[in-house]
Amino acid sequence: MALLLQRLCAERGSAVIHLTRRMLAPGHVSRDACYDGLRRLEQARLVTVRRLPGRSPQVLLLEAGSTPGLARALYLVPSGA
Question: What residues contact 63, with CB distance under 8 A and at least 6 apart?
């Protein structure tokens, strides 16, 4: 899940993505596996997830070792740059 998120963020050039089911399809990741992976990454303080009813989760990749209140986003450079 972490590698998929990193790839998606690098492709978009942003540390924030709205994770849709269509994005999970190429990696054959089920919805349940996605939610479990996001929960585990949140517990490890590698991502922050914003969940809204009926909407896809908004995921923010964090810099490793940052504290949640002072979290800094991980800024990724697109592979073509």
Answer: 71, 72, 73, 74
Q: CB atoms < 10 A from the CB of 16, how many?
A: 13
Please report the pLDDT score of residue 64 as a whole number.
Answer: 61
Q: In sequence order, what DSSP letters do the residues of 17-80 get, joined into one string?
A: EE--HHHHGGGT--HHHHHHHHHHHHHTTSEEEE--TTSPPEEEEB-TT--GGG--B-----TT
Q: Which two tokens stand for residue 79?
A: 């592979």
- Does the structure show a pLDDT above 50 at 78? no
- What is the radius of gyration, based on Cα positions, of the chain? 12
